[in-house]
Amino acid sequence: MRNEIYKVDLTDWKKRQEIMLDLLHQGIVINDREIRTWAEEQNEDWYKGTSEFYIAHSQNGYKQTTDRNEILDSAKDLKKKGINMLQKYWKVVRKLNKDHEREVYISLFDDIHETLMEVDHE
C-alpha cells in the first residue's frame, strides 16, 4: 500500500478524496484508513531519520514536505487535537469518579505519565 500512495503527487496540498481519485484513475482502490496509516508510517520513518520528507496534514489535506514551517504547523494541529482528546477523556474520568466515588479512583495524571514514558522509550 505504501508504494501505491507514492504514485500520487503530493508536492502541493491534496485532499483525501483527490488522493483516492488519483489512485482510482491508476486502478488502485484505497480507503481513508489506509491513507492515514500510510501518512503515520511515513512520518515514523521521518522521525527515525530514514526518510527525508514528512507528510503534513491539515484542513488543506496532505502534503509531502521538508519545509520546517509546514511540519511545525502540522505538529501544532496534532497538539491541538491531542489536547482536545485529553479534555474529553478527563470529562469521562471526572464523571466516572464522581458517580463511583467509593470504587476505584481513576487518575488522569498516572495514565498520561505512563503513556508519555512509553513514547519516551521508543
Write a brief caption for the model:
This protein has 122 residues and is mostly helical. It has helices at residues 2-5, 16-25, 32-48, 68-99, 108-120; strands at residues 54-58, 61-65.
**Structural shape:** elongated
Number of strands: 2
Mean pLDDT: 85
For the record, give the distance between the C-alpha atoms at the N and C termini, rounded to a whole number.
25 Å
Q: What structural class is derived from the secondary structure elements? A: mainly alpha
Order of helices and strands: HHHEEHH
Question: How large is the radius of gyration?
Answer: 19 Å
Structure description:
The protein has a two-stranded antiparallel sheet. It has 122 residues and is mainly alpha-helical. It is built from 5 helices and 2 strands; from the N terminus they run αααββαα. The model has no long low-confidence stretch (mean pLDDT 85). The chain is elongated. The protein has helices at residues 2-5, 16-25, 32-48, 68-99, 108-120; strands at 54-58, 61-65.
